[in-house]
């Protein structure tokens, strides 16, 4: 594995350590990473936020931020060039000739003032070649799209343009940093396919950085799981996914929601971190969260060593079944054994058997679903009748110019006649892609957006909302206590009484009472979302509206917030409306699922029915695009 | 998160604190404010505080100018045209024997307070109009902003000159003239800030929570505007100092014997070649005022800008 300047590898990282400075505090972001990227290989770098995966990508490109005063140890070689100490012009040459990059957000990484064609041609050097590349990455009508600006394209097309630029210089290595995270699920699948096609056609290697094991599992030949700046486990994709040997990988796989996660059980989450930064540095960084930790884990860092024997016969079988690409990658490597492409390494003191035994340990079987959903006899908690919402866009001179300059302003019909009834105590998930009108529906029900026509009737008790971005939904300069107290104002409680309510609310969401004196900026993302939930439920609302409350959180945290919402729902007997783009979340959170597209409801039904027997083609397409691993359930 | 944001990995995040901080720290990272680690002062912050201290010193100088000045600024004190460094007249005297140090100190007092008054009045008028327009929107927003545009369209300095010329040459009218052309900038900036804050989810959350409109404005919007307003205003003080000095240089300030930096420079310009210190000293005072004011504005921005 440790072959520092292997000529065959597209990139070779050995003993890489990196620390960055922020506000005068230095953090060790990467702590000893060895990684070979072989030619023609797709390697998935998986980790939660804070694992160092994005910084590793920047380091590979030699683009570490100067203002953070990076201190690098070890070496990074891309196409034989030292990316750590190389001369700036050498690095530039490598970036130009050997590297292609695809970022998460194609809107911000394309130049908004340049036409698409010109941007591709900057890398390809000639227009005909650009056209060919644009067609190659699956942009239909490339000639037509050649002269448009980035904002005139959809997210998926923009990502394709990024891909065209990335391959334009015939790179030997493409670095894709969360290329699918900002995209709708149907587009995600296309972009992943595209990456694999690029590899097949151009023979380049791909480093795919993602927080989702399943995304990596879809196309990667090998997967490296990063935790706290070190590789926890690395191996052929199928081995890592189907026979994980590190407790963290197991934890990630277990907390990942899928379409087969049991609906009525509490979701599994990783334990919260309790070790201080110093303690984490000393031993295995994962020790305080690891259910299998032994004293040794606290004291000494486990080395990354090969998993001695293949786990079980069945596992190896599935591995080769699901992994046609692995053979291609192995073929390019000459007889040297053990070749990196097949070696499965892990950094853990516990034995492989212990970890794999842990995979199959049972979980608590207490149901989190309410005992019964109230019958249809009662008045519905939410009644939406023939709702339409039309936004008129202020058009610029270009919009008015067409048709002689006297056309009416452009209109977007966000909702086109939506009707929906929700029973008290029922939970309904609304699923759709961006632009489907799902959030607009939620906002109209909450009274934040006025309806153009139609009506919304809410049961007494009103609606409260939990927003996607918890950070911006909390007033930055007010303390948590002040915000919660504000909600209690209409009750005209005495001070000790309202204090009691606040303490109770904080306890209910599992935060210490001291949080009341703290401002949102001092809280973590998961904690902020909990506070937002406390504010919404401190006086139990009739309806709780959730607008993608977990889509910005890491899988394990998302699971813990979902657990909390379901617990609250049971306890306060709330009606819950849960908007999400993620079908597996929708299935868990809703008794019924409503599927929306283009401002209309196309399918409504009990969760199990919609997931197992989707009737509308759109629902079927959505379901087909969900990345699944399909093990460990 | 995008790869272009290296800070991602440094934010101590979530319950899964997977960040690795170099220095062993005793406090739990859970409640550490991301941007403001405890006990850490970057060099930039220290410099900012030094400049703020200068700003305070300057204000104290202005307040106590009357006590600090050794002579009456309008009465001849000693010999004519004495150079700086003369015992008793530290900065020398002018052509009729008035003490230059005393005149400069009084001039600083007038300039500094005049600038503060103009900026404060601009902030109050502009803030009020901007907040009203931003909060209510609709026709009121249109009305107030078109009115603001009207003033923005006028060439400020010329209008100020016209007002002073029409009402008479004295300090009050100069201040009035500048204040009238100065507020529209603040109205614009504050309206924009109010609008963007009002569309943030935290204001929507407050609306959903049943918070009254007044309370939303005072608790959930205005506190967020204040840092921007303070930064804008403090960067502006220097401009007002210069404009005031310019107007008084043109003879639109206080009438003749009163000490004023711009006017003192202008009146004594004839001696630039023979006794250069007489016009240059008040000019340097203007330079110092506007420099400290501008640096002060930057310092304020450094100190409170990062918090948002």
From TrEMBL, chain A:
Entry membrane topology: Peripheral membrane protein
Keywords: ATP-binding, Cell membrane, Membrane, Nucleotide-binding, Transport
Protein location: Cell membrane
UniProt xrefs under Gene3D superfamilies: P-loop containing nucleotide triphosphate hydrolases (3.40.50.300)
GO CC list: plasma membrane
TM region positions: none
PANTHER family, sorted: DIPEPTIDE TRANSPORT ATP-BINDING PROTEIN DPPD, OLIGOPEPTIDE TRANSPORT ATP-BINDING PROTEIN APPD
One biological process term in Gene Ontology: peptide transport
SUPFAM superfamilies noted in UniProt: P-loop containing nucleoside triphosphate hydrolases
CDD domains reported for this sequence: ABC_NikE_OppD_transporters (cd03257)
ABC transporter domain sequence ranges: 11-253, 382-623
Protein name: ATP-binding cassette domain-containing protein
Major subcellular site: membrane
Organism: Subtercola vilae
Family: Belongs to the ABC transporter superfamily.
GO MF terms held by the record: ATP binding; ATP hydrolysis activity
